[in-house]
């Protein structure tokens, strides 16, 4: 027995587990219970509940672990012959089970389990409830028990598994776990599949599965992916170790170790490196691979002479030395070296200018990983040797470490492992390294992060590596500013490669690298946009506009405050950003959360809506950054509104104001008539940006129309809700129109998209003729508008606030019109002019329910006119809201401003 104080977690647990017998009646396998123990230990769980204790093979060892967390374990088992019988199994198996049960003395088993519990010192934290799970549930509910881990153990009939899950799963805490046993039994699997769909799977094998109880958000699904990867690695490792333990060879098997040396122009240091490798002692097969990347000095000659000179001393080593014919660079050369080291039990690397100082380094790491299977790699403390001064110092990173086990979250914060000469890998991890990993700059940090996705990282606080710093090093030869620029570039690559699972962590590290020094910036950009809702596609026009800028203006960055996303759309900003980056992985470092301004070299800033520009004005004036903004209706702009006017005046008097883009004639006239700015600073592009629809796809849109493919006449209203009755969007008028028309015709139906519902305005008289859809995003529009004949938009300026008005046509009308839905809308400010022809391409209605109803009734009686208007409107909108009319001019405006020289005032 290993002395208690010297035991590792794995062997400590294994000793406890081994004290309990199992038989045909049950007994969870070691690899399963260790996964559960790992979760309990490292997730600091406090309450474990097991349904089906039997001999305690699972309960008691886990009670031992949870006791260390100052938690409790509760086992539930009636220890009753009748309750143990099986009926939902095939006849042959049922007979075998019941014959076995008939031979058992359940009372004796129960007493033995209680005795073992006492003998193991678990009386204070382990309770066994000798009742059915249904009765025990009542006891636990009365105590308001919250479960962190629920284990539905053993094979029971379906009705009992259903009951256990229905009663106990709701008691599991958020981010607690549910373990289903024997999922390969039909009686359990049918229940497991139901909860697999509701909860989040984090591990599954043939015989059991672990589910995470959490909302199925993108963040939680990503978290589950990370956990699943770790558990899959650990599970396979445990199976292998369990086999070695059973065969009695775990302590006698001689492991195969590969040591890789990567060198380039290290003639002054390579022999010291080789000394540290070839004086390694221990009971393991020693394999050394040396790759020289076509050094221009005598490095390779020194390697050859060293091997020849020390031939007798190196007879215990299998050695392969290779020199590249051409210099391939560090990444390609390291890739070759990694491929050489695949297929070994353990792997370690050392660069040719570093060296090891402990002859037991490899042995110590092997022992550590064997005793800590939850770790996929380990590392040791290092000293740094400054070649130019001859001075040794402790690694700044290592001297502050105070734990034995770390994880990927720790590595993301800082490269705690440091130099590769400190690291040591389970060979299974090296075997899993994909070729694609070497398509990015695979430095020490990235390799360690990727490997850490498979398991934890062990730390040995013994100095066994010397990391040499000298002027000839590739990295140390770079200036501090160039190092930061390279790190930023690498972080963007790493984030993209890791599928943005750790976007928040990477972004934080990236931001730490953004600095300025005497006018030199670590990040230089042509265009910066600060916005409150992008990249949420609920704002389709911004989604399209900003994405186009990212595509067409190379050095563009968009920073998201996220206020509107959180306050009005109730979405997680970080998840919205990650979702966008996964759609556009090339924009890895170009879209990020905005907290405060960092010193960025920026040529131009751009905003939609004056409020966003106004909020950023102190930044632009402090850092001398020119800016352009679009003055859409809304977003802090209103006609003859003093607050809006003050904001506009302040913006346009700034020496850094360059251009304003307006989208409505009334806006253009207002700026000129009130002398806000000179004419040459105003760019008029009618309408505004909308999500682009490919022309041929739009024309082939399969519309189901009233009077042709269907008998019902369908009218829709689509708008965001800002007030209860939605007067500014004309929702009250829409309902009045619906009441008029429903009183006349039974086949007219109304459809509402947005935040409105049946409680905003009384609809009791038309409740069978109106449907509410809630909020829809762009992806839903194709299906929604497919059978809608008219979109009705009776909006009125000045209703939301003084001077407020909507653009013409509204965004929802454009979305509908692009899908051949006839637009019936008001135009109280005559914003349209003659651009969209009334009666041919659109129908302008009065802000009057009775008169508007009469116009709609006329078209109801003439369905072909509605069809023609829908087709004609689509053609016009494809032109007015196409790329060449909307996006291209904006890109030109921004590029022209970026290219202008700008003198600081």
Automatic annotation (TrEMBL):
<feature type="domain" description="Glycosyl transferase family 1">
    <location>
        <begin position="727"/>
        <end position="874"/>
    </location>
</feature>
<dbReference type="Pfam" id="PF13578">
    <property type="entry name" value="Methyltransf_24"/>
</dbReference>
<dbReference type="Pfam" id="PF00534">
    <property type="entry name" value="Glycos_transf_1"/>
</dbReference>
<dbReference type="InterPro" id="IPR029044">
    <property type="entry name" value="Nucleotide-diphossugar_trans"/>
</dbReference>
<protein>
    <recommendedName>
        <fullName>Glycosyltransferase 2-like domain-containing protein</fullName>
    </recommendedName>
</protein>
<feature type="domain" description="Glycosyltransferase 2-like">
    <location>
        <begin position="259"/>
        <end position="388"/>
    </location>
</feature>
<dbReference type="Pfam" id="PF00535">
    <property type="entry name" value="Glycos_transf_2"/>
</dbReference>
<dbReference type="InterPro" id="IPR001173">
    <property type="entry name" value="Glyco_trans_2-like"/>
</dbReference>
<dbReference type="InterPro" id="IPR001296">
    <property type="entry name" value="Glyco_trans_1"/>
</dbReference>
<dbReference type="GO" id="GO:0016757">
    <property type="term" value="F:glycosyltransferase activity"/>
</dbReference>
<dbReference type="InterPro" id="IPR029063">
    <property type="entry name" value="SAM-dependent_MTases_sf"/>
</dbReference>
């Amino acid at each position: 027995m290993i002395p208690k104080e010297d035991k590792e977690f794995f062997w400590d647990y294994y000793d406890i587990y081994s004290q309990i017998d199992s038989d045909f009646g049950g007994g969870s396998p070691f690899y399963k219970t260790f996964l559960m123990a790992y979760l309990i230990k490292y997730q600091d769980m406090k309450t474990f509940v097991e349904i089906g204790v039997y001999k305690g093979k699972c309960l008691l060892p886990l009670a031992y672990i949870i006791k260390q967390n100052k938690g409790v374990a509760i086992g539930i088992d009636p220890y009753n012959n009748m309750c143990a019988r099986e009926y939902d199994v095939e006849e042959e198996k049922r007979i075998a089970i019941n014959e076995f049960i008939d031979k058992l003395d359940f009372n004796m088993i129960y007493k033995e389990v209680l005795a073992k519990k006492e003998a193991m010192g678990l009386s204070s934290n382990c309770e066994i409830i000798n009742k059915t799970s249904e009765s025990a549930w009542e006891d636990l509910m009365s105590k308001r028990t919250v479960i962190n881990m629920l284990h539905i153990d053993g094979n029971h009939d379906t009705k009992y598994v259903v009951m256990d899950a229905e009663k106990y799963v709701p008691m599991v805490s958020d981010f607690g776990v549910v373990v289903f046993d024997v999922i390969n039994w039909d009686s359990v699997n049918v229940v497991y599949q139901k909860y697999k769909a509701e909860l989040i799977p984090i591990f599954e094998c043939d015989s059991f599965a672990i589910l995470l109880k959490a909302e199925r958000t993108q963040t939680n699904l990503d978290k589950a992916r990370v956990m699943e990867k770790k558990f899959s690695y650990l599970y396979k490792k445990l199976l292998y170790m369990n086999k070695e333990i059973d065969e009695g060879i775990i302590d006698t098997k001689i492991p195969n170790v590969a040591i890789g040396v990567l060198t380039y122009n290290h003639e002054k240091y390579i022999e010291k490196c080789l000394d540290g490798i070839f004086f390694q002692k221990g009971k393991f097969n020693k394999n050394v691979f040396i790759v020289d990347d076509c050094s221009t000095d005598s490095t390779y000659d020194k390697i050859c002479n060293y091997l020849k000179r020390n031939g007798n001393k190196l007879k215990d080593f299998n050695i392969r030395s290779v020199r590249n014919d051409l210099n391939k660079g560090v990444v390609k050369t390291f890739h070759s070296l990694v491929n050489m080291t695949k297929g070994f039990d353990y792997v370690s690397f050392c660069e040719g200018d570093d060296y090891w100082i402990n002859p037991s380094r490899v042995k110590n790491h092997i022992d550590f990983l064997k005793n800590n299977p939850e770790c996929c790699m380990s590392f040791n403390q290092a000293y740094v040797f400054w070649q130019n001064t001859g001075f040794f110092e402790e690694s700044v990173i290592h001297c502050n470490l105070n734990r034995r086990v770390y994880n990927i979250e720790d590595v993301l914060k800082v490269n705690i492992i440091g130099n590769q000469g400190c690291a040591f890998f389970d060979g299974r991890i090296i075997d899993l390294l994909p070729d694609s990993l070497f398509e990015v700059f695979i430095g020490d940090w990235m390799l360690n992060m990727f490997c850490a996705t498979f398991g934890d990282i062990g730390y040995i606080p013994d100095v066994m590596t010397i990391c040499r710093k000298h002027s000839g090093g590739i990295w140390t030869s770079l200036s501090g500013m160039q190092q930061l620029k390279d790190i930023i570039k690498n972080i963007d690559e790493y984030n993209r490669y890791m599928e943005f699972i750790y976007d928040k962590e990477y972004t934080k590290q990236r931001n730490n690298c953004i600095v300025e020094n005497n006018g030199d910036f670590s990040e230089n950009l042509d265009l910066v946009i600060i916005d409150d809702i992008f990249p949420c596609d609920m704002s389709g026009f911004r989604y399209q506009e900003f994405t186009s800028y990212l595509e067409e203006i190379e050095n563009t960055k968009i920073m998201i405050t996220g206020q509107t996303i959180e306050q009005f759309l109730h979405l997680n900003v970080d998840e919205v950003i990650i979702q966008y980056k996964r759609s556009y992985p090339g924009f890895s470092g170009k879209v990020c959360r905005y907290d405060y301004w960092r010193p960025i070299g920026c040529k131009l800033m751009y905003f939609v809506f004056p409020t966003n520009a106004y909020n950023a004005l102190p930044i632009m004036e402090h850092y001398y950054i020119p800016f352009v903004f679009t003055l859409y209706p809304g977003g802090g702009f209103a006609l003859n509104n003093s607050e809006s006017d003050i904001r506009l005046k302040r913006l346009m008097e700034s020496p850094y104001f360059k251009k304003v883009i307006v989208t409505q004639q009334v806006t253009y006239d207002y700026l000129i008539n009130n002398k806000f700015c000179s004419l040459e600073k105003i760019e008029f592009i009618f309408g505004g940006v909308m999500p682009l629809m490919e022309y041929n796809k739009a024309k082939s849109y399969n519309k189901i129309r009233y009077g042709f493919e269907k008998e019902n006449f369908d009218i829709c209203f689509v708008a965001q809700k800002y007030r209860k009755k939605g007067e500014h969007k004309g929702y009250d008028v829409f309902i009045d129109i619906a009441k008029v028309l429903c009183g006349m015709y039974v086949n007219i139906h109304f459809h509402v998209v947005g935040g409105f519902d049946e409680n905003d305005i009384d609809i009791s008289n038309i409740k069978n003729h109106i449907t509410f859809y809630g909020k829809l995003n762009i992806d839903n529009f194709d299906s929604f508008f497919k059978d809608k004949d008219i979109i009705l938009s009776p909006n009125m300026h000045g209703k939301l606030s003084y001077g407020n008005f909507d653009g013409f046509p509204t965004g929802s009308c454009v979305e509908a019109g692009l899908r051949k839905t006839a637009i019936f809308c008001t135009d109280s400010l005559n914003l349209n002019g003659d651009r969209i022809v009334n009666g041919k391409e659109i129908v302008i209605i009065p802000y009057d329910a009775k008169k508007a109803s009469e116009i709609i009734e006329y078209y109801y009686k003439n369905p072909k006119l509605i069809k023609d208007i829908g087709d004609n409107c689509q053609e016009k909108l494809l032109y007015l809201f196409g790329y060449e009319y909307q996006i291209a001019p904006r890109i030109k405006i921004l590029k022209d401003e970026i290219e202008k020289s700008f003198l600081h005032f």
